[in-house]
Amino acid sequence: MISIDEQKKKLRKEIRNLKKQQTQEQKETASASIIESIEKHSFFKNAETVMVYWSMADEVITHEAIQKWHMEKRIILPCVKGDILELREYTGIDSMKEGDFFKILEPQGPLFTELNELDLIIVPGVAFDINNNRMGRGKAYYDGLLKTTNAFKLGICFDFQLLENIPADSHDIPMDGIISDRRATIIP
User: Domain map of the chain by residue range?
Assistant: First the structure.
């Protein structure tokens, strides 16, 4: 029998190959659809403080949404520091600097530590399933954070990343909902 870790490793490789097949135009179109779906839901409309991620090249594109939303909401972004995620407030593109670990832009400035103030956390993942399970890149950055907050946890992904079932451990934190460019597991 294949262990959960081996199943996850195999699935990560499969998804990585599917991501490579996506054109930039496909990613942009799908990302716009996902962002539009997020903006329609009450969990977003009612949120004052939203944690989201500055997307890497193979993820749902969030840059434009962050720049748009920060005029209306308090936007918190994660910064990878060793084995943990530090949270910092996004105050504009001028406050961003390339991070040390993933070479993506990260906000500078004071740490955000008031996790009870987070209303919504928009979470990337390698794969999700229709039971709201999430599989990340394997470092458990988000799992450590997600278990400490009562914020609404929303996974976002391209449709090929939303599967019937994915391998999940007891330490994997499930989402409250998932939105892809074609489906959602959220009850409106």
Answer: 4-179
